[in-house]
């Protein structure tokens, strides 16, 4: 069986923010430094900076904040109906029933799903047990969804 893998970049990333207590405003905490590259500035280094502020007589803390990741890109519709049909007919390891050229039932109850190819060529994977449909954008997403549902 082929292995379908998709590279992922998170929509958000964690940054470490050192804050000092100033007593002004509602919260009184203001940012001192922001480390947006977590690979070069680790959590340990941020904690050491907080410790140095505390040793010098200031109130300080470190918080973790999630910010939008500039490397993230929305997935494109990289899946075609031909890709779906080819995977289902040739590579799918689960039992398949074809209801029409755009509707396939995969697996056995309760670990069963349906794959729909809509008129606008988007693909949806329907989980029969939870009664939910997920729109998938790549072949790797579709394979992952089918495996997750059919394995139970």
What integer value in Å does the Rg equal? 24 Å
Strand order of the largest sheet: 4-5-6-7-8
Low-confidence residue ranges? none
The best one-word shape is elongated
Arithmetic mean of pLDDT: 81
Continuous helix count: 3
Order of helices and strands: EEHEHEEEEEH
How many independent structural domains?
Answer: 2
Main beta sheet: strand number and arrangement? Answer: 5 strands, antiparallel
Distance between the termini: 19 Å
- Tell me the helix content: 10-25%
Number of strands: 8
Beta content: 35-45%
Estimated structural class: alpha+beta
Describe the structure.
The protein is α+β, with helices and mostly antiparallel strands and 152 residues long. The protein folds into 2 domains: 12-68, no CATH class; 81-151. Helices cover 24% and strands 36% of the residues. The chain is built from 3 helices and 8 strands; from the N terminus they run ββαβαβββββα. It has helices at 43-55, 81-91, 139-151, and strands at residues 12-21, 29-35, 60-68, 96-100, 103-108, 111-117, 123-127, 132-136. The strands form 2 sheets. It has a 5-stranded antiparallel β-sheet with strand order 4-5-6-7-8, covered by helices on one side. Strands 2-1-3 form a 3-stranded antiparallel β-sheet. The protein is elongated and about 70 Å long. The two termini are 19 Å apart.
